[in-house]
């Protein structure tokens, strides 16, 4: 059982060493600072596009939303436009809540079998909270990093930074998002190890991105608060990448390269992994369609004629019995 | 009932997964947990491939030589045809939110009954055959090769899923195990690995128009038997019509209602309701050709579903009706609500449904042109078109089981509750986590209501039964109302096993008991022949 996460842990450790030694001992700054990031971004963009196009190529033959609320039927019955959306605005609202606030996960319960026997259900918010904390803090961290890729820095990034550094602990100030990200990743890891069912279904590939993202956040915090990496240099490199005039500034250490190597690995890994759930959620036919199939006909592009048993064939077989029973027939 | 006692079943439940990884735990096909293989004659009758006698317990399943190739090609074809399938194969993060949402997992503790793992059974082969990572990394990437054991594992566990969609409600990406099970079963069908409880009803339905194989004359006789029964109990002679050209409405309901108690009382209820409305202008006909609302083809393949479903529109067209009214059935309504118009429409020969009694336009059904009886009845009651004596149901303390498909494939929640509250005085819903969109399956849906898999059904029905038990103990609930024919067949033994003292009824049975029929004699008994409240000796 340990094999599953050990494998991923070893993989991430090796990646760490690869970048660190590669830069510190072999002087491969150009490889880790320019070549690999560019390659990773290309793989990410091409890979994700391919994947999404691949999904889009498969049609949606039937409209099969999971209806999670009252349908629209009689005018005096209140329909749930959010959980059983009849209209496109309803679907957009449903998707909006799903994508930004994980509404379905919010319903999560846990069941326990007690004496009696009696099955107890209780609300289980931790996964929802953990997932929210993880995704939102990660997004904040990513957006904050745009400071390194823009010149001049848009004012709203500054605002976000201010909000994120609200607690003003230490110099330089701690960003809440970084701490929350680290904690959330750790929580997601813990539940994969501790909850027996989740552990049982977990694969190496469920641990790998967790370790990788942990590594990214950890090296980030390390640079800001402990290793004190030269921010000016980091920005120079980042700006070089986005303006297509890549440079390798002096004086930024191995940890920085580990950091961007991890990010590169994550980007390149993304299209081939479950991380594609980010794109997939938009494409999920149980969520992204209006529940109005009885009012608006859904077209199946590959609908083909099938062999049926016609009334004529039916009557042919049973005509005598039907006549005897007084049932009307087409042919006497 | 023979077999394990309730406490023995409970003791068997162990939620701790085994030490060994799931890929290393071989499947053990256990008696009581699977359904018998299909009768080859049934498979042949509808021209499905590889009909042959075979036995799941035997080592040799007599598969076609190129079975792996068949599976691989069928898999690819379905990935290309169904975005749902493709996306669901790719995006699961194994967060485990679905794990304890499945009634079969709660009732058995078998980890392969967790929806996530049930899907992983297929996904592991998908990764191996169709993804780069899986091809290169193999087991590390969660991939495994398709072997005979894997196929057997698929078969065992995809016939332990009732396609109830409860997991899809909780999944953050809406991954619907029903969809995955449907694909798996389609693949089984290409190998001739059907189960008889599905294959034979399908063949029956194809030939005679209904799952039970009731031939036209017998169908009419059975209904006429109800007519006599109704006259005996109410003094009113109802006059149903069959295959009547020129009727306004075609009525289609599952044949189970015609066949066995307590569904028969619901069927009697339909007859009484239609008779009551006749004078007010309802002109409805039954059909012996389209004498099945349910669709076990849905549990076979999309194609088989379409083949069986085609009869409804065909018959509506032949008889020249204006629209179709559908009776109380579960999966029938998922098929009608989410598939029928797409498959067999457009129904441009029908009219937008309008209630001839109230004038209500059922705009929500304006394309499919098929209305649910609960919608129809709720509308009648709302407009005071039914004279009802609620007190006739005073002996009942009722709770309501939302059937999976009308719940999560339609969203029919308040119409039936409105009807129940209009015809009886004592109604108590079960706890919130077990009703409406979170309702628990009866454990016997999707063609699993056979006799040989009783243990599976009892395990799967445990969460439902347990919620009934809760209201039984708290409010004295003694009647479980439902709008599904499979429920009416499956829930009575489930109640007897887990919650003795709770009966099962269809909605329209309760309506009919409360309905004051013009010209009726003094009603002393309900349709079951039990004394009405106040009429006991």
Task: Briefly characterize the structure.
The complex is a heterodimer of chains A (332) and B (537). Chain A contains 13 helices and two strands; from the N terminus they run H-H-H-H-E-E-H-H-H-H-H-H-H-H-H.
What this model shows, in words?
The complex is a heterodimer of chains A (332) and B (537). Chain A has 332 residues and is mainly α. Chain A folds into two domains: 2-301, Fumarate Reductase Cytochrome B subunit; 306-332, no CATH class. Chain A has 13 helices and two strands; from the N terminus they run ααααββααααααααα. In chain A, strands 1-2 form a two-stranded antiparallel sheet. The mean pLDDT of chain A is 94. Chain B has 537 residues and is mostly helical. Chain B has two domains: 6-30 and 49-193, no CATH class; 202-514, no CATH class. In chain B, the strands form two sheets. In chain B, strands 2-1-3-4 form a four-stranded parallel sheet. In chain B, helix 14 packs across helix 23. The mean pLDDT of chain B is 96. Chains A and B meet through helix 2, strand 1, strand 2, helix 8 and helix 9 of A and helix 3, helix 4, helix 6, helix 9 and helix 11 of B.
Give the helix level of chain B as a range of percent.
Answer: 40-55%
Overall pLDDT metric of chain B: 96
Q: Structural class of the secondary structure composition of chain A?
A: mainly alpha
Q: List the total number of helices of chain A.
A: 13
Strand content of chain A: under 5%
CATH topology grouping of the largest domain in chain A:
Fumarate Reductase Cytochrome B subunit
């Amino acid at each position: 059982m340990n094999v599953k996460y050990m494998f991923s842990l070893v993989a991430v450790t090796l990646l760490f060493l690869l970048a660190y030694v590669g830069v510190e001992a072999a002087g491969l700054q150009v490889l880790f600072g320019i070549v690999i990031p560019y390659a990773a971004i290309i793989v990410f963009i091409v890979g994700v596009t391919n994947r999404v196009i691949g999904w889009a190529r498969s049609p949606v033959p039937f409209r099969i939303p999971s209806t999670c609320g009252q349908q629209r039927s009689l005018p005096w019955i209140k329909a749930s436009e959010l959980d059983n959306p009849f209209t496109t605005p309803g679907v957009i609202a449903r998707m909006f809540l799903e994508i930004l606030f994980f509404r379905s996960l919010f319903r999560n319960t846990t069941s326990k079998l007690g004496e009696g026997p009696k099955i107890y259900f209780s609300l289980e918010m931790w996964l929802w909270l953990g997932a929210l904390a993880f995704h939102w803090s990660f997004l904040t961290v990513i957006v904050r990093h745009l400071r390194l890729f823009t010149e001049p820095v848009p004012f709203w990034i500054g605002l976000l930074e201010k909000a994120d550094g609200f607690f003003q602990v230490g110099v330089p100030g701690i960003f809440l998002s970084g701490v929350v990200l680290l904690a959330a990743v750790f929580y997601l890891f813990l539940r994969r190890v501790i909850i027996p069912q989740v552990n049982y279904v977990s694969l190496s590939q469920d641990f790998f991105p967790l370790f990788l993202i942990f590594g990214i956040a950890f090296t980030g915090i390390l640079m800001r608060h402990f290793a004190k990496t030269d921010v000016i240099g980091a920005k120079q490199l980042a700006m070089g990448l986005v303006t297509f005039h890549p440079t390798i500034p002096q004086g930024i250490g191995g940890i920085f390269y580990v950091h961007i190597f991890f990010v590169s690995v994550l980007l390149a890994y993304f299209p081939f992994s479950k991380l594609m759930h980010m794109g997939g959620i938009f494409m999920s036919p149980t969520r992204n369609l209006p529940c109005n199939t009885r009012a608006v006909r859904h077209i199946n592009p590959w609908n083909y004629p099938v062999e049926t048993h016609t009334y004529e064939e039916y009557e042919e077989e049973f005509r005598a019995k039907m006549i005897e029973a007084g049932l009307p027939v087409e042919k006497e | 009932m023979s077999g394990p006692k309730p406490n023995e079943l409970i003791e068997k439940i162990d939620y701790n997964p085994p030490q060994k990884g799931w890929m290393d735990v071989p499947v053990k096909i256990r008696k009581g947990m699977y359904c018998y293989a299909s009768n080859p004659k049934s498979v042949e009758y509808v021209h499905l491939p590889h009909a042959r006698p075979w036995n799941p317990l035997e080592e040799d399943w007599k598969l076609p030589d190129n079975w792996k190739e068949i599976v691989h090609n069928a898999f690819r074809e379905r990935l290309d045809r169904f975005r749902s399938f493709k996306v669901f194969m790719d995006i699961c993060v194994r967060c485990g939110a679905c794990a304890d949402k499945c009634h079969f997992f709660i009732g058995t503790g078998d980890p392969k009954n967790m929806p996530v793992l049930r899907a992983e059974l297929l996904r592991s082969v998908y990764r191996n055959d169709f993804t780069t990572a899986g091809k290169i990394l193999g087991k590390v990437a969660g991939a495994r090769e398709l072997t005979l054991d894997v196929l057997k594992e698929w078969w065992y566990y995809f016939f332990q899923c009732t396609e109830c969609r409860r997991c899809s409600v909780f999944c953050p990406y809406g991954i619907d195990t029903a969809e995955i099970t449907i694909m798996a079963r389609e693949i089984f069908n290409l190998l001739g690995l059907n189960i008889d409880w599905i294959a034979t009803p399908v063949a029956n339905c194809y030939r005679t128009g209904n799952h039970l194989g009731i031939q036209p004359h017998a169908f009419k006789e059975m209904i006429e038997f109800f007519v006599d029964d109704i006259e005996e109990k109410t003094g009113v002679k109802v006059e149903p019509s069959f295959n009547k050209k020129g009727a306004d409405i075609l009525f289609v309901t599952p044949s189970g209602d015609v066949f066995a108690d307590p569904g028969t009382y619901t069927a009697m209820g339909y007859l009484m309701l239609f008779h009551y409305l006749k004078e007010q202008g309802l002109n409805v006909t039954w059909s012996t050709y389209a004498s099945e609302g349910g669709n076990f083809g849905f549990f076979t393949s999309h194609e088989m579903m379409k083949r069986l479903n085609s009869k409804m529109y065909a018959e509506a067209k032949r008889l020249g009706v204006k629209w179709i009214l559908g009776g109380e059935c579960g999966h029938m309504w998922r098929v009608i609500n989410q598939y029928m118009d797409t498959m067999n429409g457009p129904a441009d020969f029908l009219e937008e449904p309008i209630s001839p009694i109230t004038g209500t336009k059922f705009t929500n059904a304006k394309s499919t042109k098929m209305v649910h009886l609960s919608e129809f009845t709720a509308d009648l009651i709302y407009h005071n078109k039914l004279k009802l004596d609620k007190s006739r149901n005073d002996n009942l303390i009722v709770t309501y089981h939302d059937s999976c498909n009308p719940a999560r494939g339609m969203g029919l929640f308040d119409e039936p509750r409105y009807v129940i509250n209009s015809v009886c005085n004592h109604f108590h819903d079960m706890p919130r986590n077990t009703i409406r969109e979170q309702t628990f399956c009866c454990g016997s849906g999707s063609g699993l209501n056979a006799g040989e898999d009783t243990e599976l059904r009892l395990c799967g029905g445990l969460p439902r039964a347990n919620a009934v038990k809760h209201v039984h103990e708290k409010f004295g609930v003694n009647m479980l109302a439902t709008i599904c024919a499979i429920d009416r067949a499956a829930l009575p033994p489930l109640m007897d096993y887990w919650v003795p003292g709770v009966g099962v009824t269809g909605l329209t049975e309760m309506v009919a008991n409360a309905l004051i029929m013009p010209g009726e004699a003094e009603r002393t008994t309900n349709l079951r022949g039990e004394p009405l409240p106040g009429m006991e000796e």
